[in-house]
Amino acid sequence: MDKAVSGLVLKAIDYKENDKLLTILTLDMGKILVVARGVKKSTSKLKAYSQSFCFGQFELSQGKGGWVLVGVNPVDNFFELLADFDKYKQACAVLEICDKICVENQSYPKLLLEALKIIKQINYSAINPKLLLCKFMFNVLNYEGFGIDAKHCSCCRSPFMNEVYLSVSTGELLCHACKTEDCEMLDGGVFSALKIISSVEDEKLSTVKLPTSVVERMFVFLYRNLSNKFEIRLGSVEL
Ligand SMILES: [Zn+2]
After folding, report:
1. pTM above 0.85, yes or no
2. 165 CA distance to ligand 1 centroid (A)?
3. Residue ranges of the domains in the chain?
4. How far apart are CA 39 and CA 52, in angstroms?
5. Structural contact between residues 190 and 196, judged by C-beta atoms closer than 8 angstroms
6. pLDDT per residue over 114-163, tens digit each?
7. Distance from the CA of 76 to the center of ligand 1, in angstroms?
């Protein structure tokens, strides 16, 4: 059976002597594994598309051991990322988060579209790539049912007045009255930054002006939240 699917290559690992094993997040079939035969040879027509960040339409055929790549209609390869190490690292983190969150053969259309939107901005805009990664992490938590409410206490739902506490074990934000033993006070800069990114659309992120140090601290907060919920340890970004 042959099939054409739209998707984004999350990972490409060496497989057998001349092949690669691609992890593709597709619109209709979710996360799938595809063998790209012979693509390590310089003569392969599919070589350029059998790597991370390739987005397009993939033609697949059902082989004995699973899907085999037959052809690609590429839309974008985001090649420019390779020229900027900082952008590249943050974009790799987007792919890594998708790979770790998605289970095989379950559909994640919202997550795929969000990943593409953010990778495009990392690649083509001058916006701080770490801020873009933060927005991606914030939205992913939201899509997966772990949204961060930067306006109300997670426990009593009353609006935050001044002090906000972060539960280290659950990642929840709590007010002074509800704080538990494992809470630490959340840094005011990070708290304001979270409120800003929770209300701004992806397309308007260029209007957000935040100091690099605040973005870094917000990243640590979101990363901790994400790793608590999904046991994610990203290899592409260090704390
Ligand atoms: Zn409360």
Report:
1. yes
2. 10
3. 2-76, 84-230
4. 13
5. no
6. 999 999 999 999 999 999 999 999 999 999 888 888 889 999 999 998 88
7. 46
